[in-house]
Structure to design on (772 residues):
């Protein structure tokens, strides 16, 4: 296995774009990433596309060659990866593997989703397909309901409070408000977050991520080629993908995700470092409680300490470990299939020192964590500045 | 890259199974393949699952960990691959790459689809998502319509006849009737085939593949480990995946598929042999015309000669190159996501000499060709008997 670098990143804005189709969003992200990498499309050896539910959201399947051919790829393997909300995390994992193993010398990993053409109830139904429809779905358990149960149990077991959940929302909204590409640029107060409309108690609307359209792409090459292409490359220290049961009731303890812990451990081992060396992170805050649990499962804090840690400002820009400086899924937006690669782009922007108002002081090593469903898939990536 | 072998195969019957759910079909195939390979589930390093449209057919997404966890896989990467009707061909390609590149020492590639719970019009609509919905779909062009146009053009350009298309149907129905796992075990005459109900002229119901439920799985290991696990292993000489535009109107000539030609050329080069060395083949006969065109694009015959070749019996069991001894998608059935890996299983059965009544005399080298949409994805694999 040889070292690999991200030499190009490209993102569309995340938001609701009624006038844009899925393909044009994806092509924009891929084109931007190729331009950033100084790589022309015909030099790409394989295309890895993450998409959760294009067929359900916009009626279009077979998306990899559909987008790949429009982006200028000819005859190369174009493949769609689906692992729920970790779809493009998985695409990134396989893309990285292929370059690291010496199969290809230049690949593109991308993700896209167009969700806003469907009504919110229909979106909720489509998202429920990432859970176990035969048990959870049949019982009417949507994802807010599942994460509501998780939050309730975390509160019961560790004394996590509504204020601590709300602190995550306030932070991520504040960060997103400074991100030009974020879906919702709206600063909120703790009072507002606490008074949010209930969605699935104890979660309010401010605990839930957004329904968004958007795309993201990265270009991967062997490290030895990176400097010549783009001096602002980022080195990929580790990528780990893991799995678990899909149904929540198959889990021994719903306040932690074994797939996240396993992916974190694998990634730390591969990168030869520990959570204390991570200087910034993009965590999968599909719900505020998910960010808290991820900060525990990845070892940034001890089990049950995620709530107080967030409330104390330790995860804010300027805190001990800034989490979701992009605004996270909560405020940047969560076009499901684009989220995993989008997180990689956000980490790389920080590593490059290009995060503008949101730039963190220590930005040598960053981590991205992409979660599928209620923890059945996890992809953890660790990157280092050039 | 190191040589790789298929050490285990597992298939469910293909058919309409109202009492079976998608997961139980997939788990049956995976379990059978692991048993055949003498590999316990915990020794598998990664799971590659092909599925075209589980969310649309049965409302279940996130299928890779959903099935993987039920099959006994723990924490390993479980990923769904989607490339229309070539979904599990693509899963097989990536699985083979991973073992060949030395990333993993034991992986499972599988495919599954459960289609018959939807009405035929709804199935047709879901399948149309493998074409370009913004152009073809909007114009009402279903896949039978697209392949009807392809057939008409092939007739116009090369003099291909209705009798030649029907000859493919008669052969595949005859083969399928001898395949215990085939969906439709029904011998038909040329007269019946010619008098079939029109679906999209010139194609009748006998020119179209079936709507089926089913699953298939294979176990891949490095060649050096194969003999110890299962002396009936098959060596993978080549796998190539290619792509093209999705919309038919982007193609210069609709009587050939550049992605198929390119995949064939790559595979032959990798395997260091030519079409004349192939002793049997499973080709993607989603429509009879597709088998004829594939036999041309892969170089078994010259351009435009596929029709007469089939009519002369050259592709029958006992002919110059037996094609679709399994019965093909036409008669064995076409559970879309299962088809690619199913073809690999069928080729391996022939290489092992285990095809019963359908066994061909020369069975040292076999080829499988899996097509996505109207040629936007193609996977060609070449295997050799132990």
């Amino acid at each position: 296995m040889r070292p690999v670098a991200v030499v190009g990143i490209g993102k569309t804005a995340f938001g609701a774009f009624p006038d844009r189709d899925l393909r044009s969003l994806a092509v924009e992200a891929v084109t931007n990433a190729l331009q950033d990498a100084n790589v022309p499309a015909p030099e790409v050896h394989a295309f890895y596309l993450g998409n959760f539910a294009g067929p359900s959201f916009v009626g279009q399947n077979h998306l990899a060659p559909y987008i790949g051919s429009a982006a200028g790829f000819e005859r190369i393997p174009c493949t769609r990866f689906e692992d729920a909300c970790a779809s493009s995390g998985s695409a990134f994992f396989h893309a990285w593997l292929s370059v690291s193993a010496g199969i290809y010398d230049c690949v593109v990993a991308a993700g896209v989703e167009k969700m806003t053409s469907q009504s919110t109830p229909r979106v909720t139904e489509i998202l429920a397909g990432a859970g176990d429809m035969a048990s959870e779905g049949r019982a009417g358990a949507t994802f807010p309901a599942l994460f509501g149960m998780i939050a309730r149990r975390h509160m019961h077991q560790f004394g996590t409070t509504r204020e601590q959940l709300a602190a995550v929302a306030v932070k991520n909204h504040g960060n997103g408000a400074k991100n030009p590409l974020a879906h919702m640029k709206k600063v909120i107060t703790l009072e507002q977050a606490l008074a949010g409309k209930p969605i699935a108690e104890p979660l309010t609307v401010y605990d839930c991520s957004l329904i968004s359209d958007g795309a993201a792409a990265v270009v991967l090459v062997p490290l030895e080629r990176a400097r010549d292409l783009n001096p602002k490359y980022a080195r990929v220290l580790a990528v780990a993908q893991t799995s678990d049961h899909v149904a929540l009731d198959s889990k021994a303890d719903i306040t932690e995700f074994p797939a996240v812990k396993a992916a974190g451990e694998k990634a730390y081992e591969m990168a030869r470092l520990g959570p204390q060396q991570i200087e910034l992170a993009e965590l999968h805050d599909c719900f505020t409680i998910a960010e808290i649990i991820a900060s525990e499962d990845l070892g940034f804090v001890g089990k049950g300490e995620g709530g107080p840690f967030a409330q104390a400002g330790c995860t804010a820009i300027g805190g001990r470990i800034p989490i979701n400086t992009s605004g996270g899924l909560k405020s940047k937006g969560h076009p499901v299939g684009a989220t995993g690669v989008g997180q990689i782009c956000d980490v790389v922007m920080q590593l490059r020192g290009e995060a503008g108002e949101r730039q963190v002081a220590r930005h040598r090593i960053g981590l991205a964590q992409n979660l599928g469903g209620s923890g059945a898939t996890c992809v953890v990536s660790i990157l280092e500045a050039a």
In short: Chain A has a mean pLDDT of 98. Residues 140-206+237-385 of chain A form a domain with the Peroxisomal Thiolase; Chain A, domain 1 fold (CATH 3.40.47.10). Chain A touches chain B through 61 residues (CB under 8 Å).
